[in-house]
Structure formats: C-alpha cells, structure tokens
Amino acid sequence: MCNDATHTPEAVEKLKEYSTRIEKLARDLGLDYYPVDFELVPNNFMMEIAVYGLPVRMHHWSFGVRYIHQLIRQGMGHSRIFEVMFPGDPCRAYLVNGNTLPENALVTAHVLGHADFSKNNHLFAKFMEMAGGHILEQAADRAHRIETAIQEHGQERVEAVLDAALALEPHIDINRELHRPLYPTQAPKPEPEPVLDVFQKRFRSLPGERMFAEAHAESKRPGIPPQPEYDLLWFIAHYAPEMEDWERDIFLAVREESYYFYPVFACQIMNEGWASYWHARLLREADFLPQDLYLSAIKAHSDVVRPYAAERQLALAVNPYHLGFSMWEDIIEKHGLEKARQIVKEEDDFGFIRNYLTRDLIEKLELFVYEARDDGDIRISANEVHAVHEAILGPKFNYGAPRIAANHLHVDGSLQLVHDHQSDGRGVDLARAERVLEYIGRVWRRPVTLHTVGERGEARVVTSKRL
C-alpha cells in the first residue's frame, strides 16, 4: 500500500499522521520555522504553479510556452516535480497527490528544511521584510488588477506592457530597497561662498567670468538618472514620459515579485542542499515510519541527490540538490551543526561556494569545467578550484541577466542604456536585445538605444525601431 498514490482517503490520513510526527521530530531536533500549510494537488495544477511561479499570477503568453516546454520534459522523463514551497508567514507547500506515500513523507521533511532555511537566512529575511510574507495573496490581488486593466484597455495593450515588464524581470538592483524615493529634483545646496580679497573680486567682475560661473552652476544640476541606474523596472515605471498609471502598476508588480524570488535564486544550492540534508536526517531518525515506507523514501532521496544523468552518464550541469547536500554533510562532519547554522544565516550561494567548496570536495564529487567543441565533442578544460567556483556562480550573477543600466535620459525623451560588460563578463544576445528594446520602446514611447559590445569586443549600438 505504501507505494500507492496519495489520493485515497486512507493514504491522506496516513500522510497527515506521519507529517504531524515528522514536524514534532523536526522541532525536537532544533529546526525553527514559520508554520507550514501543506496542500495536496493534482499534477496538472502543480505544473501550472511551477511554470507561473505562483498558484495565481498575471496571465501572459510566455507562461504557456514554458508550460509546453515543461510538459515535454516531463513526458520524456527529464523533469519531475515533487513539491513547490513558498516562504512566508505562514509558508505554503504544495505536494502532488499522484506521488506515493513514501515520496510525500520525504517531501514533507524536505519542505521543513526549506522552511527552516528561509526563516533564518539573512537574505530571505531581508527580502521578505521588504516584499511581505503573504506573496500568494498579493500575487492574486495583482492578477485581479491586471484582469481589470484588460477589461478597460484591451488584451493587446495590456499584453504589450507585460511583454516589456516580464522581459526586464531580472533587471532589478538587489542592493537598493524595494520601496525607494524618487531622485532629488534639485542639486545639493552649494557650499558657502568663500571670502574674496580685492583682487579676486575684481577678477570675478571681468567680462565673461560671471556668465561662465552661471553656466557652470547650471551644468551641476542633477541629470536623470544621476548615476547609472540598474533597477530598470523601477526607473521605467517612474520616469517613462507618457506611461499611464495602470502601466506603471504592472511594472511595479513584476518588480515586487522579482524581489520576492531573488533569495530563492541566489540561495538555490544552499537551500536545496539544506532541505535535502534534513529530509535525510529526519527520515533516518523517524523510527515510527514502517520499514518498507522508509526504504522507499530513501530510494526517492537517492534519485533526488544523485550526481548522474540517465544510465550513470556524468551530468554536464550541476545538480543543486546533490552539490548542496554533499557540501552540508562535509561542513557538519568537519565543523558541527552550530557552524552550519551560522553559515545558513550569513551566506548566499556566492559565499557558500567560494568559502566551502574545497579542492578535496571538488575532486570527490568529480566536478570540472568543460568546453563544447565545434565538432560536437565535449572536452574537460579544468577542475581547478577557482574555475569550478566561477563556472557554478557565473550564471547566478545579476539574476542571470546581463548587467544593463539606464545611463542617460535625453532632452527629447529618448533613453540610453549601457551594458556593463566588463563587470558581468556576459555577452548580450543581440537578436534578443533588439526584441527587448522593441518591447521597451512601446511603453517608453521614445527611441531607446543600448550600447554594448559584439563577440570580438567591438562597440555595438542596438536601437529600438520606435523612432
């Protein structure tokens, strides 16, 4: 019976019993988390949550494309969703009722590890304080406002704004507050005039000198933006010349959700590894579980944290469950659980990988950097510590997107963007950049240009077609 799906009344009652006892064990072992609301849902609903990112979210054609992609991957056996968990107070966790009872017992323990991590990690705490701990209700309210906008302004206009906002979804500035003031409208107060001697007074009164001083003072008035602005969603929402209020509302809604999801992105390896460590430990110490259920759950654990692709071929992408689980086991074995808890509190994936993925662990886990050759062959290029660290962390920099800043708002309202290619080390897909600039141009309603570099480092300028 333990391998049956969890949608019979008997299986559901058993899962409730095991979940209650697993939660008590978790508290006894020192896990500290906000209450967790568990819900069993069918697989198609879980697919929608995974694709949209939330149970109820604004509708957009891109989510349909992602759904088809996920459906194909799942049909090919490459992607199976066990759970989706949303940090907050309370946390919300969705389990698939088609999973077996052992799998959902494991998932319950896994979710409690996530809940402990999200409550105690500084990045989660910071962003939850800014974005609020009730993301599901807030997202549903935003979706309702967008549906109202569609009724008032039409599907085509609203979709055009969503095209632009969702294309810029990663382009926030995580070093700035979610709720931040507009730029100052006046230049800083000038310093007091120095006391001049007779010669200096006569010099200042010479023809042309007063005009130069006034022109110099004029040039000191702050421009827009006063410095490169990387929070593009915020900048466009507040400084687009002709945006309507409902359009600004959509941009700010997408921005707020992007802030909420950033810690999940920036702590993925730590978070999945911590949850995997605790689901393994909780199951191991849950002596109330039947032996056959325990063995089935441990088999599911092995499938989740395995380092291999199908048929034991080495995977060419890092499995965050396997890497994080292995690192936490290594840390706890060498330094103890209290040190691990301190790391949970203080680090994100950048510090976690650079400080605790050691040379010995890299060799043990057989991690390496590879190159794809023109003939289709794969060649191992390095397993040196720094190279492995940067290969893992490179895609995480700046939310995985090129670092683009609004650099100058011209007098005619045209907008200049610049790509900070030196700091992010990431090129721009010029064809995609043209499409995104076209989206931005529709809401900016003035020409928009992007200054970047080509494949050989030569200067390139991409311009929106709205001229």
From TrEMBL:
Pfam families: SpoVR (PF04293). Residues 12-382 form the SpoVR protein-like N-terminal domain. InterPro entries: Spore_V_R (IPR007390), SpoVR_N (IPR056174). This is Stage V sporulation protein R. It comes from Noviherbaspirillum denitrificans.
